[in-house]
Design a protein that fits this description.
2 domains, six-stranded mixed β-sheet, 12 helices, binds adenosine-5'-triphosphate, binds magnesium ion, AAA+_ATPase
Length: about 290
């Protein structure tokens, strides 16, 4: 279910679990233990948040995913919301709130600060009151929580500093007011995120470029998905030697590029684009060989 009128700064609002959100979590191929740690950090706050608020050093409910472009941060964050919502479903539904970090203008002095404060002090608590659990996704959080120590006053308006201050005080107040709320933030530039914001994260998880084995598994997953749509591709998808060969040509690429390159094999011949059932191993080899 997506709810129609969105508050300022919010670009998506969903009730989870929902079949519609199945997929991302399972499609991500990550080192062993990664998903368990992410789920653990989210579930502790969603389920035990209220009791934990009394502890010194109580969690902020902030999970940070940091890594290069195309390494699956957004996909993992979205998948985590659904995976966690499934685990707590017997205690009630979860609201997924997607925040647009670029929606907070900075041309008028004090405006971003006010908008950020409103997000943390009004909008999120109001949304969190709707259901027992809430997951807030802030993609590209460096836009909102600019590192103050490196943001120069010449190139960055004072407003940027104030907005980061507002994020910090917002995080602290949110922890007290909404103990069952988890924030999942992603960033390409962990060095651009304010240190005090990072310090409040309960878990900072790094995503990295895939190694040979992971690339091979992403190729397998991409081909299996294609075979799901075009059944004649079943044998290609099942060919382990071919997958290993293709993976070698894809070394160094991020997960997004790997998936796109496999898809690009469908575009090399017009008849294949018109009928993907005609895709051959040779098309896949051509697409994955680095050009000289
Ligand atoms: N380790 C992986 N396993 C499977 N698929 C992956 C992996 N890494 C990336 N992908 C795929 O790449 C695509 C892009 O991922 P996503 O948008 O989550 O990356 P991102 O890290 O958020 O990138 P950006 O920093 O550019 O926003 C998705 O389709 C995702 O499934
Ligand atoms: Mg992303």
């Amino acid at each position: 279910m997506s709810e129609r009128t969105l508050p300022p700064g919010v670009i998506g609002l969903h009730a989870l679990p929902s079949d519609h959100h199945d997929g991302p979590w399972d499609s991500m191929i990550v080192p062993p233990g990664t998903k368990e740690r992410l789920l653990g950090a989210a579930l502790l706050v969603l389920r035990q948040g209220r009791r934990l608020t009394g502890l010194s050093g109580a969690p902020h409910g902030l999970i940070m995913l940091a890594g290069p472009p195309g390494t699956g941060k957004t996909t993992l964050a979205q998948g985590l919301a659904q995976a966690a919502a499934l685990k707590v479903a017997e205690r009630g539904a979860t609201t997924l709130v997607e925040v647009d970090p670029h929606a907070f203008p900075s041309d008028m002095l004090g405006e971003s600060q006010r908008a950020v404060s409103k997000l943390f002090l009004d909008t999120l608590p109001e949304l969190a009151a709707r259901r027992p659990h809430t997951v807030v996704l802030i993609d590209e959080v460096e836009a909102l929580a600019v590192r103050r120590s490196s943001a120069s006053f010449e190139t960055n308006p004072v407003d940027v500093h104030r907005a980061t201050d507002a994020v910090l005080s917002g995080l602290d107040q949110l922890r007290a007011r909404c103990p069952n709320l988890v924030l999942v933030a992603t960033t390409n530039f962990v060095d651009a995120v304010d240190e005090a914001v990072l310090s409040r994260a309960d878990l900072v998880m790094s995503t990295t470029l895939p190694g040979d084995e992971v690339i091979e598994q992403i190729v397998a997953s991409s081909l299996a998905e294609l075979a799901g749509q075009w059944p004649a591709l079943g044998p290609l998808a099942g060919d382990a030697d071919l997958r290993a060969e293709l993976a070698k040509g894809l070394r160094g690429l991020d997960g997004r590029r790997v998936r796109k390159t496999i898809l690009a094999a469908l575009t090399l011949r017009t008849e294949v684009a018109l009928d993907p059932n005609l895709l051959t191993a040779e098309d896949l080899r051509r697409a994955t060989q680095p050009e000289d």
